[in-house]
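Researcher: I need the complex structure. Ligand is flavin-adenine dinucleotide. Inputs:
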Amino acid sequence: MENLTSLFPTIEIKANDRLDQYTYTKTGGPADWVAFPQTVEEVQVLVRYANKQHLPLTVLGNASNLIVKEGGIAGLVLILTKMNQIQVSGEQVIDQAGASYIETTKVARDHALTGLEFAAGIPGSIGGAVFMNAGAYGGETKDVIQSATVISPVGEVTTLTHEELDFGYRHSSVQDTDSIVLSATFSLKTGDQEVISAMMDDLNQRRADKQPLDLPSCGSVFKRPEGYYAGKLIHDAGLQGYTVGGAQVSKKHAGFIVNIGQATATDYLEVIHHVQATVQAKFGVSLETEVRIIGRD
Ligand SMILES: Cc1cc2nc3c(=O)[nH]c(=O)nc-3n(C[C@H](O)[C@H](O)[C@H](O)COP(=O)(O)OP(=O)(O)OC[C@H]3O[C@@H](n4cnc5c(N)ncnc54)[C@H](O)[C@@H]3O)c2cc1C
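Model: Output:
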């Protein structure tokens, strides 16, 4: 394999870089290459190179919804957190993909723009939020997004409308096309800054009361099964506190699996499989993971 650091000397690229330093769960083996592009042009150069060389390409945002396996990731990983500009134009907020969702909600609040309060505590990037249609407390990314600019696996940049993004529960069309989100435009409304601020504080307090925010995790591990709550099923199955190695079903919020020590991705996966099998056996409900599990065994 060619040496990407000498091939692209102006782009920050690291060889054989461990991913556990970036993931919220603090797990994950090394990637062959990790690049931190700072501009759309840098992303485009890397995407085109990977496509031409048949080099596997993976994109990460804040790595807050990921379990990366112990074998790490083959090929090139793009981490977009250095593309993090947030611009306000009237009632629109235009974000680069690596911008923080939490930071974006604060910028909207500071401009007295309402609509993003629900996302005040979602620790992802904007690219990850569009990809996942992240949501909380009755709001979803799809409610406020107007469009997103993406780059295709062959390096073509296009802007997708709300309709083309085809949002669903924790789903957007970006998941089906292997595209990379480069930026997104939110359409908000002018509101009362004090009301916006109070709502954000309230939602953050509710999170802090219910979620184990003091320990590494990847948020809710499972999607909400139709007609049920994953956390309640896991609680009712008596699984809170179930531990493999350093991975534990949170005692504070049954939907979370926390890293209480030196958890590995394998520990996480064993806990996930045990929870799925137990809930299936006790209640006949199949739990599908919301967290994305990627990488080599
Ligand atoms: C404590 C905690 C609380 C959480 N609370 C919530 C919550 O309330 N609601 C909620 O929905 N989620 C929640 N999450 C999960 C997570 O924050 C969201 O899913 C978030 O949108 C993921 O964004 P990210 O940048 O971290 O994505 P990553 O974890 O980096 O990636 C997730 C997926 O998105 C893809 N992706 C990332 N960036 C891009 C891009 N630019 N283009 C294309 N694909 C991309 C990745 O390839 C991967 O498949 C929580 C997580 C934690 C740790």
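Model: Summary of the prediction. Residues 24, 59-66, 80, 97, 122-125, 127-129, 131-132, 134-136, 174, 180-181, 211, 213, 217-219, 292 surround flavin-adenine dinucleotide (CB under 6 Å).
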